[in-house]
Amino acid sequence: MDFMTDQDVQKYKEDGYVVLEGLLTYQECDELRQRMAEIVDRMDVPEHCRTTFSTYHDEQLKTQGNADYFITSGDKIRFFFEKGVFGDKGEFVVPKQQSLNKVGHALHAYEPLYKNITHSPKVQGIAKKLGLVNPVILQSMYIFKQPGIGGEVTPHQDATFLYTEPLGRVMGLWIALEDATVNNGCLWFIPGSQNSGISRRMVRTLKGTFPLTDFTGRERTYNEETFVAAPVKKGGVVLIHGEVVHRSAENTSEDSRHVYTFHIMEALDTRWSPDNWLQPTEELPFPPLYTK
């Protein structure tokens, strides 16, 4: 029996997203969380994250360091922190495990537990059910949404950052490793908004210029009342169309909201934009989702 039903496919096509419960067992969720705790325990905090500014020049260097660290992270496992977690001398002012916003963007390539989940029979089954012929994995992230400080993610479309020609070739899989609720920052969607195209793109700037990326176009304004909450139980997955508008509120609760998420692209007859921040490298071309 297929993990994804015909009704699920229909809802995904109509609304631009669908929640599927039971992709992972509780044990698999806990193993991914435990492995991430080990990774965080052993992480080296990049120097530019600890820089303390005393001059405008210092601040510029820190900003440039952050940008370079991000734009070269597609084939690496790197650490991105919440605001205000370092003190004046570059020391942690919160527990290390609660300092991170996310880890990305190549867990699917270099971490065996994450790789196995990404290529699992259920995930491959979802892609096949949706008719994908040659899906490849673009990126992966572990998102913490820390209790009390997990920031808001404003309304956006993933295709703003992961642009293809034609559009409609990218899908996110957002796996809840803990219950994601209205209180701790679950996703909210505008159903059907994947049919309106995109109004904004993040693109690489010319080599040798700064900033390294910039936006073209403008984000539309959205009516708050059109968003629908998509809570999901631990082990469930939300499938996210590349153009559906979605957001998440800040986490003001005492519960974290850990998620493993990755994006796949139908590579058949698709052009990946050379202007995207994320680019395949010799070390890590976009790997095929289907394993023989």
TrEMBL record:
Gene3D superfamilies: q2cbj1_9rhob like domain
Cofactor list: Fe cation
Keyword annotations from UniProtKB, A to Z: Dioxygenase, Iron, Metal-binding, Oxidoreductase
GO molecular function per UniProt: dioxygenase activity; metal ion binding
Cross-referenced InterPro entries: Phytyl_CoA_dOase-like
Purpose: 2-oxoglutarate(2OG)-dependent dioxygenase that catalyzes the conversion of 2-oxoglutarate to succinate and CO(2) in an iron-dependent manner. However, does not couple 2OG turnover to the hydroxylation of acyl-coenzyme A derivatives, implying that it is not directly involved in phytanoyl coenzyme-A metabolism. Does not show detectable activity towards fatty acid CoA thioesters.
Protein family membership: Belongs to the PhyH family. PHYHD1 subfamily.
Name listed for the protein in its UniProt record: Phytanoyl-CoA dioxygenase domain-containing protein 1
Taxonomic lineage from the root: Eukaryota, Metazoa, Chordata, Craniata, Vertebrata
Gene expressing this chain: PHYHD1
